[in-house]
Write a structure and sequence with these properties.
312 residues; Rossmann fold; alpha/beta
Length: 312
């Protein structure tokens, strides 16, 4: 389904945060931002690892195949290989108690026709009044934006989703501050971020968070729900798979080692069915989710440590 056009009045200069004109012109810095194939490219060049000129010259970052899969032109056995690897490595965790659909249901019950921002588009599965952004061109992407400087007017959105995004930004705290800025008072955030996961997407992978670290990242939000996304079984499989892949640095060998590793380690995911609900699982979970509502007062670090979940 084709996404609806974004109301241009939402757009702001990523540098000054002043509203842009319909032609993406900023009166403060007298700069007109480009649109490539009708997708606005709104990046603060001075504060981003991405450059506007690369998108204009068709050298824009396209990410891994799982990040912008529709751009992948591989065919034959290469395509089958990619699909098999994607199926195994991106399979949903065996058990979980909350997710995107649950968060969206709660938001919709609280806010009629909510306006939602998705940072790092992918296939969010969210429909309605939604703005999908990313740093790569993709099927759902309506705006190229760096989360460090979101190009939107303050207090424009009722909710923001950032799924498997905050590990890929250089300064996640600044990004969460930007999310807070573009949310309306009492706006919602839903995020999923890795903890015990190997590096993925190469140089565009920066950070991991423990449960408390993730909670502190969203300290300006009151918690609605929080927990594990992929338990110790998932993380054990991921680590062992990467250990197998590390047996060679040659790309051709690593491709097959990765596939062999995925096939051998996939059964470890079943351990999560046994550890589900145990606090000890928090010590080695693959990742965590947080669903919260913007608060007037951030939680203190003293209060934070009382929220610890893990083995005693």
């Amino acid at each position: 389904m084709k996404e609806r056009a974004v109301d241009y009045r939402l757009f702001a200069c990523p540098i000054h945060k002043f509203p842009l004109s319909e032609t993406l012109f900023c009166s403060s810095c007298a700069r007109e931002y480009p649109a490539v194939n009708q997708v606005p490219v709104l990046i603060n060049d001075a504060n981003s690892v991405f450059r506007i000129e690369d998108y204009i010259s068709s050298r824009g970052y396209e990410g891994a195949s799982s990040y912008a899969g529709h751009l992948d032109q591989r065919r034959g056995w290469r395509q089958r290989y990619r699909r098999t690897v994607s199926l195994l490595s991106e399979a949903s965790p065996p058990r979980r108690d909350f997710g995107v659909i649950d968060a969206m249901a709660r938001i919709s019950a609280s806010v009629p026709n909510p306006r939602v921002l998705v940072v790092g588009a992918g296939d969010s599965g969210i429909s309605g009044d939604v703005v999908h952004t990313d740093v790569a061109f993709g099927a759902n992407v309506q705006c190229i934006a760096d989360a460090h400087d979101l190009p939107f007017v303050s207090q424009s959105f009722d909710a923001c989703f950032a799924i498997a995004v905050l590990e890929h930004v250089a300064d996640p705290y600044r990004c969460v501050q930007e999310i807070s800025r573009v949310l309306k008072p009492s706006g919602y955030v839903y995020a999923e971020t890795p903890f015990m996961q190997p590096v993925h997407m190469g140089a565009y992978d920066f950070t991991r968070f423990s449960y408390l670290g993730h909670r502190r990242l969203f300290r300006s939000f009151s918690e609605v729900a929080a927990g594990i996304v992929g338990g110790p079984g998932v993380s054990a499989g991921q680590m062992l798979n990467y250990a197998i892949s590390s047996l060679s640095d040659r790309a051709a060998y690593r491709r097959w080692l990765k596939l062999i590793g995925l096939l051998l380690t996939y059964p470890l995911r079943s351990l999560d069915r046994l550890s589900y609900g145990n606090l000890s699982a928090y010590d080695s979970a693959s990742g965590f989710y947080f669903f919260g509502q913007l608060s007037k007062e951030p939680i203190s670090d003293r209060e934070l440590i009382t929220l610890f979940r893990g083995g005693r």
